[in-house]
Amino acid sequence: MPPRNPTVDVSDWLGELGLSQYVQLFAENHVDGKLLRTITGEDLREIGVTSFGHRKTILQAIARLDGTPPGSASPELVSAGGPERRQLTVLFVDLVASTELATRLDPEDMSDVLHLYQNTVAGEINRVEGYVAKLMGDGALAYFGWPRAHEDEAERAVRAALAISSRIGELVTPTGTALAVRVGIATGMVVVGDTIGAGAAREETAVGEALSLAARLQALAPPGGIVIAEATQRLIGDLFALAPLGEVELKGFGSKILAWRVLGDSTHRGRFDAHVRGQLAPMVGREQEQALLIQRWTEASGGEGQAFVLRGDAGIGKSRLVRALRDAISGQPHSEILLQCSPFHGDTPLWPMLQAFDSSKARPPSATVEQQLAESGVDPAEGLPLLAPLLGLELERHHPMPELSPEAQRSRLLSVLVTYFLGSAKRKPLLLVLEDVHWADPSTLEWVRMLTDRITASALLLLITGRPERVPALPRSLHLTQLSLGRLGRAAVAAMVASRVSDQQMASPLLETILSRTDGVPLFVEELSKELAERGSVLTTDGSPEVPSSLHDTLMARLDRLPGHNEVAQSHRASAGTSITGCLRRLLTSRKSNYACASSSFARPSCCSATAALQMRATASSMPWCGMPHTSAFSNAVAARSMRGS
Q1: pLDDT in tens, 477-506
Q2: In sequence order, what are the residues at sequence separation of 6 or more whose Cβ sits closer than 8 angstroms to the Cβ of residue 503?
Q3: What is d(CA 228, CA 247) in angstroms, rounded to the nearest whole number?
Q4: Is 186 helix (H, G, I), strand (E, B) or coil?
Q5: In this predicted model, which residue has the larger pLDDT, 623 or 398?
Q6: What is the pLDDT of residue 233?
Q7: Which residue from 356, 411, 421 is spatially nearest to 386, judged by alpha carbons?
Q8: Gap between the Cα atoms of 82 and 436, Å rounded
Q9: What does each C-alpha distance from 28 to 39, 46, 87, 357 come to in angstroms?
Q10: How many CB atoms within 10 Å of residue 316?
Q11: In whole angstroms, how far apart are CA 535 and each of 496, 501, 525, 528, 540?
Q12: What pLDDT is stored for residue 68 in this prediction?
C-alpha cells in the first residue's frame, strides 16, 4: 500500500504548476514536501508570493495532495489538536432547484455544473481563509474559526457568502438556466475536530446548534439571498446592510429565532464606527494623549502640517482616540477624509484611496472624479487617466491614457494622489485618517511616505493607526509624532465600568473581577462591562469571567498564532476535562495575565510534557494582550517629540 502522504518534491511540484519561479523562494525558506501541507495564504504572502492568483493556485494544489476539498486545510493541520470546543461561524450553502436541474440535464452536464459550482463556492471560502468542511453535491458546509481563528470570522463568513452568491449568479447551465444559491449563517459554540471514517470517507465532524441553525436559515433565503442569525448579526455590527426578518419559526427549535437578510456592504467607511453598539462610553485614561493629539491638530490647521502615528495592539483604544479627536474638533471649520485599510484587500493596490472619491457609489462617474481633482488642484487631464483603472471608470476621448511604463505610471499616480490630498487641505484644514495601516498594500505604504515628506507647509494632519507589527517606518522629522498606547490604569478601568453598570453592581465583587482580570485593555473592559450591564453577571460556575462572544474570535486568533498551543490545550482538556474556552477564560482570569502562568493553572505535571512546559514559558512574552507592564504612553510621545529632528 502506498504511503498515505507521499513525500512531494517541491521543485518538481512547482514546475508542474507552471510556477518554477518560486523554487528558489521555497528553498530559501526551507519549505519541504512535509511542511508544504501546512502552508496557508498568510504564509505564502510572508515568504514573498505576492500574486493573489499564484497563491490561489498553490493553495488549491496543496488541497489536492491528499484529496481534501478545495479550500480546506490539510489533514495534518486539522487533526493535530483533536476535538475542541470553539465558537464557530457556520456557513451553509445550497444550490437552488438542483433536483429540477438534474432531471433536465444530461448526467455529464449536471456533473460539470456541480463541479463548477463546488469549485466556485470552495474558492470564495478559501479566499477569506475559511474551512470547507463538506461538499455534498448541491450543498456545502464551511467553518470560520477552525482550525485557525481570525478576529473577524463572522465578517469573513458574510463576505464569502456575498461573493458566492454573486459568482454563482453569473453561471448558467448548458441549456441557459441561470444558477442561484441560498446561504444561511449562524454563530455559536460547537465541538469540532473529531475525526470519523477513513480514506475518502474521512471527515472532521462538528456538533452544535449553530450547524442546524445555519441549515434552517438558508431555507428561508430567496434565490441569491443570505440569511443570518442574531449572534452573527451582533458580531458584524453595521459592516453590512441588513433587512430584519423579525422572529421566525424554524423546525426543531423550541422558540422563535431572530433573523436578518444580508443585502450587501454598508456605507460605513470605518470599522470602528460599524462595530459601535449603542452610545459610546466616555473616554477615560487618555487625557494626556488626547491633549497631545489636539495640539498637533492645532498646529496642522494653522498651516504647519503634521503626521501622527498611533500604535497599539488590537483593542487598546486607537480608533477610540481618533473618534475623540473628531468629536473635539467637530465645531471647527475643517474637512475629514477617512481611509480604511482592509484585511481582505491587502493585494489590491491603493485600496484605501478608493474611499476618497465619492464613496457613495461603487463606481463614481468620471465627471464627479474630474470635478474632485480640479477642486484640489490636480489637472484632470493628468490625473483622470491614471485613476481610471483604479476606480473602474470609462475614459472620454479627451482624456487618453499616457504611454508610460507600469513603474512610471505607478509613480505618477502616487504623486497625483499626494497632490490631491495636499490640494484638498488648501480649501480648509484637513484631517486625513488612515486606519489599520497594518493591512495596507505596499503602494499605500509608499504613498504614506511620499505624503509625509511633503506635508510640512500644509493645513493637513495625517493620522495613522496601526498595530506594532506592521507600521511603516518613517524618517524622523519635526512634523512627525509617534505614540504607542499602553494599558489603562486601575482608576481608568473603574471609571469605564462605572459608565456602563449600576451603582449596585459597582459595589459588588464583580467589579473587582473586571478590575483585576482585564489587564487594562479597554476592549476587554468594555465588553465585560456590557455583559455585566445586560446579564447581571459575567461569571461562570467556577467563578472565572465568561468570555463574551465578541472577544472569542480575537482571543482565539491570538492563541492559535502561538507555537505549541494545541499541546497546551490538549493538556488542559486532559487535566480539567473542559474545553478550550476554559483556556480563554483562564487567560482572561490570570492576575498577571501571563500565558505561562495561565497555562500552568490547568496543566498538571502528570499530563503536561516537558516540551509543552518549555513552549509555555517561551511564548509568555509573545502574548500581545498580556504580560506587559503598564507604561505611560504620554511619556513615550514626549520622548518621541524631543527626538524630532535629531
Answers
A1: 889 999 999 898 888 888 888 877 766 666
A2: none
A3: 12
A4: strand
A5: 398
A6: 95
A7: 411
A8: 34
A9: 15, 13, 37, 42
A10: 25
A11: 17, 11, 15, 10, 12
A12: 47
Where do runs of H (alpha helix) occur along 37-128? 41-47, 52-65, 75-79, 98-104, 107-127
Residue 66, pLDDT score? 52
Each residue of 530-562: b (16+ CB within 10 Å) or e? Answer: bbbbeeeebeeeeebbbbbbbbbbbbbbbbbeb
**Parts of the chain belonging to CATH 3.40.50.300:** 274-395+404-486+635-642
Residues 430 and 335: beta-carbon distance below 8 Å? yes
Give start-end residues of each CATH 1.10.150.50 domain in the chain: 1-66
Cα–Cα distance between 581 and 600 in angstroms, integer?
Answer: 16
The candidate with the shortest Cα–Cα distance to 290, out of 319, 260, 321, 262, is 321
Closest C-alpha to 527, from 543, 508, 507, 545: 545
Phi/psi at 350 (5° precision): 60, 35
Between 377 and 508, where is the model more confident?
A: 377
Q: Which of 434, 459, 456 is nearest to 446 (CA)?
A: 434
What percent of the chain is predicted at pLDDT more than 90? 39
Domain with CATH 3.30.70.1230 in the chain: 79-266
Tell me the range of 263-267, 313-317, 481-485, 561-565 where mean pLDDT is highest: 481-485
Predicted TM-score of the model (pTM): 0.73
Strand, coil or helix: 446: helix
Q: What architecture does CATH give domain 274-395+404-486+635-642?
A: 3-Layer(aba) Sandwich (3.40)
Q: Are 310 and 468 in contact (CB under 8 A)?
A: no
Write down the CATH superfamily of domain 1-66: Transcription Factor, Ets-1 (1.10.150.50)
Locate the DSSP E strands across 396-554: 430-435, 460-466, 480-484
Q: What is the DSSP letter of 240?
A: E
Q: For residue 345, count other CB atoms closer than 10 A to its CB.
A: 17
What CA–CA distance (Å, rounded) separates 19 from 60?
13
Sequence-separated (6 or more) residues with CB below 8 Å from residue 506: 497, 498
- CA distances, 595 to each of 345, 408, 598, 616 (Å): 32, 49, 5, 7
Residues in the chain: 646
**Torsion, CA 622, CA 628, CA 633, CA 637, rounded to 10:** -50
Other CB atoms within 10 Å distance of the CB of residue 369:
21
Give the separation between CA 617 and CA 621, rounded to whole angstroms: 8
Cβ proximity of 341 and 435 under 8 Å: yes
The whole-number pLDDT of residue 607 equals 33
Domain 79-266 falls in which CATH fold? Answer: Alpha-Beta Plaits (3.30.70)
Buried b (16+ CB within 10 A) or exposed e, 157-183: bbbbbbbbbebbeeeebeeeeebbbbb
Single out the residue of 74, 70, 226, 244 nearest to residue 157, CA to CA: 226
- CB 184 within 8 Å of CB 119: no
Cα distance between residue 630 and residue 58, in whole Å: 43
pLDDT tens, residue by residue, 566-591: 555 545 444 433 444 455 555 544 43
